[in-house]
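anyone seen this seq b4? input:
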Amino acid sequence: MRIIKAQGPLTVQVISGTYAVLFGMNIAETHKDGVLGFGIQRTDHDMDDRKFWLAGFKTFKQSGLPPGDLVLTNEHPIQAFLWGDYTTRKNHRYTYRFVIMRGQPGNLQESEEVSIPISMEKEKGAGHEVYFNRGVAGSQAYVRKFGNKSPDEVGQPAFDWLSRGLFEAMRDFLRQAIDDTWAIHAAVYEFHYIPILKELKSAINRGAKVMIIFDDKNNGKYDKHGNPIGPWKANRKAMREAGINTSHFTPRKKNPSFISHNKFIVLLKNDVPKQVWTGSTNITQGGILGHSNVGHLVRDDEIASSYETYWQHLLNDPQAASLRNWTDANPPVPAGSFPEDTMGALFSPRGDLMALEWYAKRMNEAGVASFLTAAFGVNDLFENVFFAKKKRLRYLMLETADDKMEQLGAWKYNRIAIGNVLKENMFERWLEERLTGYNVHVKYIHTKYMLIDPLGEEPLVITGSANFSDSSTTRNDENMLIISGDKNVADIYLTEFMRLFMHFYFRMIANRIGPASPIIDPNAGYLKEDDSWISPYYDTEHPKCKERLYFSGNSAF
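predicted toks r here
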């Protein structure tokens, strides 16, 4: 849901997802003098109209507060035009009151304001359900809630917090198969999270017909610790532990140097495909509770049928060459833009890079803004898009620094965040963070999705298992779901993208500053005590100006 409201010189756009809300604020330039920031007050209409000021971390320098303490935004205001509330509850109704704060630190005065009521997007929609896990075990929120204990030490409360509904949604999806009129057809890569395997065993016990195609490719390669590369050994061990008979599994063995990287499950009723679960989530502890992931459930007979037909082609463990002949035509890559208000899927492996080129072209042709996650670096096709000096906002979220980071970040409208946790820094305002330890190779960003003009009238969402790479296109078993024109889906993906982007961007900047040093500005990291913070937001060539206009819904962008 997105709502724009203007009152006097203040305009605000509120964009709600299922668990996160974005705010894009704007002040008429004639009224920006003397502004020290924004205070945001929230009323929760599903908790007895409880009213409180949102809190942040940044303070005026002389606050004297201990590390980790939150501060209220009416006392230490938000000095930014883009902000988010990540403490919301699913299905709740809120009213947000946005107040321009003037005056001096310690004596702030409420000025112009606007109030906006909003409802959170429903998790269980008619056509789509979208679930993002927390994806940020290394966070101030985790440390305040559980200390620096590992999730295994904390137990179920930590697991629930980290899953954020992702495990529960996958479990409930499988529990729909209540008897022998239902069937579950899965194609999986890493598949060894015992609680989910036990759910499949329960479905079998209820009479459901369960068949799972899994990556079983032993390519003879081992890491430096002597562990086999690939999930085949862990997959087989977990199947035995869950007590599932091997008759329910079909190993994918052909072309061992490629990987069967799908993560989708088709649900059939009386042999008719009805729903599909897809996304980036491997069925592992790290996939569900560790690095960032999304599970996307689609209730659409046509889409479910397309995934089921693909699944049937995987069932006989075909050679890649044979499979490519089918995927190239079922369906072919669109000739141009994706049809408005429609949905489809593209499957791999394919005979060429046309699908990847099509994705890159969509990003290059974005009218205003594009958003991309990259777990394994930026493909050359997308690098060329980022290198082009267009006056368009481009957001990139990376697992680790790319070898062309300097070039990627050279153009001022390219906004880049890299996965990380807070390390020692000069401010000593934040608590030490650490990760779950569940993920070895990919610790932060595991999602694979792209958003094109998500706040426009015809947003485009591309999401699935493929890493926007050559291998994902021509070598591996992969799937990508393409959704055009669904604003609700776009809002959920956008709020989650920006939640993680701002989380990692802040840590990236703080870690660059490092421990105390005489070279560093001693006022860095604190709120400005005058309105000097605001000037970049009104410099028409500065990316913060573009961001202010875009997220506040200003058509002058």
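The chain has a mean pLDDT of 92. The first strand starts at residue 2 and ends at 7. kinda curious what u guys think
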